[in-house]
Amino acid sequence: MKAVVMRETGGPEVLSLEEVDTPEITLATQLKVRIQGAGVNPIDTKLRARGLFVSPGEPAVLGCDGAGVVVETGSQVTQFRSGDEVWYCDGGLGGLQGNYAEYAVIEESVCCRKPVSIDFVHAAAAPLVLITAWEALFGRARLTEEKTLLVHAGAGGVGHVAIQLAKQAGARVLTTVSTEEKQAFVAALGADESILYRDHGFVDEVLRLTDGAGADVVLDTVGGDVFKASINATSPYGDLVTLLDPGPSVEWKEARNRNLRIGFTLMLTPMLRHLPQARANQVAILSDCAEMIDSGSLRIHVGDPLPLEQAVEAHKLIEQGRMLGKLVLIP
After folding, report:
1. pLDDT at 257
2. Is the CB of residue 117 less than 8 Å from the CB of residue 293?
3. CA nearest to 44, candidates 36, 35, 53
4. pTM for the predicted model, two decimal places
5. Which of 40, 215, 234, 271 has the fewest CB atoms inside 10 Å of its own CB, making it the most exposed?
6. CATH class of 129-264
7. pLDDT beneath 50: ranges in the chain
8. Which sign, positive or negative, has the C-alpha torsion 10, 15, 16, 21?
9. Helix spans in the chain (H)
């Protein structure tokens, strides 16, 4: 089969389309999937540039998100059969093959039926960002109705679904964006207020929009200086949740004085630490999101999909940070 292979760390050019062995079922609980779409996420570009989460060993195939058709099942598989359409987040960290490929073999337990109302491209874009946003908002921050949420980079992959999930929960949503085009995009998703952070300091704008109180919950998808500044945009006794490592230079005094609850969300932890119950919880999140998508209350925005052989271009686009929504590769 064709797959995009990474043999060393570096820039996008280290990715190459190659012929590799097609994976085969080795356990009775596994499925073989013909991949119809592979989501591209910022974590893919970081692994490519900095190294895999686990010892690289053999050349790696990146890509955590996948959607496709079941073509074969192990003898103990009970929930799926050949021809079923599925989506999932699995592999792509080193060790387990990722989804920049034509086929994947995955455990039945990490798989979920694809929403019937969307195509494979949109399904492939969604699992990682949906689980990330859900765990950050409801698992870490315990977001409830009538609270005010600030989402950084609301037009991005995690941001654009976080806005929608928060509105479904009855929250007021503020978000930061970089352009007027993105401002219109997040407004269409339901954001109550958007802040052009390049024109206005977002902390002052958040305080203005909350009558000086700050946001009850802040979701940081950017890191670095944005995380540091977000401390001052979070209300006392509020929640500041980040998807990234804040780094060693954070001054925590103001966070302590505000009695903030700091949370971290890495939805890959159950895969990295082999936590079956946590993975089952994530599959349940996907199942709930599938119902929301099919009911029309949640949508996934995808830019123009690219063929598998343009994985290098996909990584360049991700690193430029100009994407609306998600990017998908099609084998």
Report:
1. 98
2. yes
3. 53
4. 0.97
5. 271
6. alpha beta
7. none
8. positive
9. 42-50, 120-125, 127-134, 157-168, 180-189, 202-209, 225-230, 253-257, 269-272, 276-295, 311-320
